[in-house]
TrEMBL record:
<protein>
    <submittedName>
        <fullName>DUF1885 family protein</fullName>
    </submittedName>
</protein>
<dbReference type="InterPro" id="IPR015062">
    <property type="entry name" value="DUF1885"/>
</dbReference>
<dbReference type="InterPro" id="IPR036294">
    <property type="entry name" value="Rbstp2229-like_sf"/>
</dbReference>
<dbReference type="Pfam" id="PF08968">
    <property type="entry name" value="DUF1885"/>
</dbReference>
Length: 138
C-alpha cells in the first residue's frame, strides 16, 4: 500500500500559493546546493544526494522522480488542497511512495520533504503521521 507525506502551506509560510513549477524549482535548488557541496568535497555528491530524474506525463497536477540507480524507483509529487486547522482550505504538496518504492526512496523522500518544508516555512506531515512545524508559530 502506498504511503503519503504532506507539505502544507499555513499562516506564516513564505507563500500561500504553490504550483508544480515551484516544487520543481525547489528540487533544482536542492540539486544545485548538493552539487556545490560535492565540489567542495571533491566528489559527485549531487548524484548521491539526488539520484533521480524529474519526469512528467503532461498532467498539470503531478510529476514523478524516476530513480537512476537500482536502489531507487519512484517518488510521486503533486499539488492539491487540504483543510487547515481553522477549517479553511490550504495548499499542499502530496509526496507519494508507490508500492514498488524502495527503502532508499523513502529515505530520500523524507529528506526532500524536510528540505522543501524548511525552505517554505511550511508544516510537514511525514509518512509515519508525525508533524514537523517549520513555520513560525505563536
Amino acid at each position: 500500500m502506498s504511503q503519503s507525506a504532506y507539505i502544507k502551506l499555513v499562516a506564516g509560510s513564505k507563500n500561500q500559493d504553490i504550483t508544480l513549477q515551484d516544487v520543481q524549482d525547489a528540487l533544482h535548488r536542492y540539486r544545485e546546493q548538493t552539487s556545490r557541496t560535492g565540489e567542495q568535497l571533491g566528489w559527485d555528491y549531487e548524484r548521491a544526494a539526488f539520484p533521480y530524474t524529474i519526469e512528467s506525463k503532461g498532467d498539470e497536477r503531478w510529476f514523478y522522480l524516476k530513480g537512476i540507480t537500482s536502489q531507487y524507483k519512484h517518488i510521486i509529487m503533486g499539488i492539491g488542497e487540504t483543510a487547515s486547522v481553522s477549517g479553511e482550505p490550504a495548499k499542499c504538496v502530496q509526496v507519494v511512495l508507490p508500492d514498488e518504492s524502495t527503502h532508499g526512496d523513502k529515505s530520500k523522500a523524507n529528506e526532500l520533504c524536510k528540505y522543501i518544508a524548511k525552505s517554505w516555512l511550511a508544516e510537514l506531515t511525514m509518512f509515519n503521521g508525525r508533524t514537523v512545524y517549520y513555520n513560525p508559530r505563536k
